[in-house]
Design a protein that fits this description.
The protein is built from twelve helices and 14 strands. It is an alpha/beta fold. The chain folds into two domains: about 120 residues, Aspartate Aminotransferase, domain 1 (Alpha-Beta Complex); about 230 residues, Type I PLP-dependent aspartate aminotransferase-like (Major domain) (Aspartate Aminotransferase, domain 2), CATH 3.40.640.10. Helix 7 links the parallel strand 7 and strand 8. The radius of gyration is 21 Å and the shape is globular. The termini are far apart.
Length: about 375
């Protein structure tokens, strides 16, 4: 009898179907704060570029158009003061695609390395990418929101292909020490992949990138889904070590991984504009405060995050686990939240709230939650 092959686990958010039904019983339906899907409109100029570029006829370049790459490099210099050479940046079909596939491609380059290190409470795709590549995913403990790099044994480091960092963190909203991660990676010859898709929504400091500490041995991953409300277009980019970027560019070109031409044109316009991002920052900061206060009134210790548009909230003492908390919140308010163990076993005592819904919908949910 043939041994069974890979069987995909249930997709994390599909596990919320039963709780969603409870939330949807409220008049007006569910207020879905379970997934970080933007609901606010993107800039009109971006949509105009999407419709009028004339690039839909031919095949787009896999690495990204000159306009897109120039816009990405200009944005990084403007936002972080970092200069990235033309050889150090390339486009991807949304950053989730890159996160899920990059370790498979990098393993072709270093077949003797078989471990993928990732934060113990984190976006599930870091571990899934390793599993899809037939590699071993090893969770790194967190201390005060930072990777506990000292906990990684020399034996594990010697077999590590990459270390993932995510700052600001999904789901916790905490900030990692990116310079320390880069220093550790260079010391043990492990590529550090820094997922920075929430960097525009950093509250405790100015936006940060791992590339501030240099390009050697690191890649920063950036998305337009969050900053520009363009999750439906699937476009992002990765930047850093030119040797690694060049390798991935070549592999991805052979695999036919191409961002559609009209999407590249729209992304270039979006990256060139910061005004719409400033407006979105204001919206999310207001919503974070609104929902945090509502949750506090309902007995939850909801603290404002250092970054992201997520609240990472401990369950109450009267709740057995995060799934019970999610059911309680759905039943009383109609708001759907994500139990913390979707982001790893260490997250089981928390739930995550994505404040992406329009403010008036969040007001309704909080009024329900706090009404006698």
């Amino acid at each position: 009898m043939t041994a069974p092959g890979f069987v995909p686990p249930p997709y994390p958010y599909e596990r919320l179907a039963g709780i969603r039904l409870q939330a949807d019983e409220h008049v007006g339906g569910v207020v879905d704060c379970s997934i970080g899907t933007p609901y606010d409109p993107p800039p009109g100029a971006v949509l105009d570029a999407l419709a009028t570029s004339g690039t839909e006829r031919g095949y787009p370049t896999s690495a990204g158009s000159a306009a897109l790459l120039d816009a990405g490099r200009a944005w990084m210099e403007r936002r972080f003061g970092v200069e990235v050479p033309a050889s150090g940046l390339a486009a991807c079909i949304g950053t989730k695609e890159l996160v899920a596939s990059v370790v498979h491609h990098l393993h072709l380059r270093q077949p003797d390395r078989s471990i993928v290190l990732y934060p113990e409470v984190s976006y599930p795709t870091y571990a899934m990418g390793a599993e899809l590549a037939g590699l071993r995913a090893v969770a790194v403990p967190m201390v005060d929101g930072r990777l506990d790099l000292a906990s990684i044994s020399p034996e594990i480091a010697a077999s590590a292909l990459v270390l993932w960092s995510n700052s600001p963190s999904n789901p916790t909203g905490e900030l990692d020490d990116l310079a320390a991660a880069a220093e550790w990676g260079r010391a043990v010859d492990v590529l550090v992949l820094s997922d920075e898709c929430y960097t525009e929504f950093t509250w405790a400091t100015s936006p940060q990138t791992i590339l501030t500490s240099g390009l050697d041995g690191v890649l920063a991953v950036h998305s337009l889904s969050k900053r520009s409300n363009l999750a439906g277009l699937r476009v992002g980019f990765y930047a850093g070590d030119p040797e690694v970027v060049g390798y991935l560019r070549s592999v991805r070109q052979h695999a036919g991984m191409m961002v559609p031409g009209p999407v590249q044109a729209a992304a270039a316009v979006a990256l060139a504009d910061d005004t719409h991002v400033d407006a979105q920052r204001d919206r999310y900061l207001e919503r974070l405060g609104l929902v945090a206060e509502g949750l506090k009134s309902a007995g939850y210790d909801a603290a404002m995050p250092s970054g992201t548009f997520y609240l990472w909230v401990p369950i109450r003492d009267d709740q057995a686990d995060a799934w019970v908390a999610a059911e309680d919140i759905a039943r009383t308010s109609g708001m759907l939240v994500s139990p913390g163990d979707l982001y790893g076993p260490a997250g089981s005592g928390h739930f995550r709230v994505a404040v992406v819904q329009p403010t008036d919908r969040l007001v309704v949910a909080m009024e329900r939650l706090t009404s006698p």
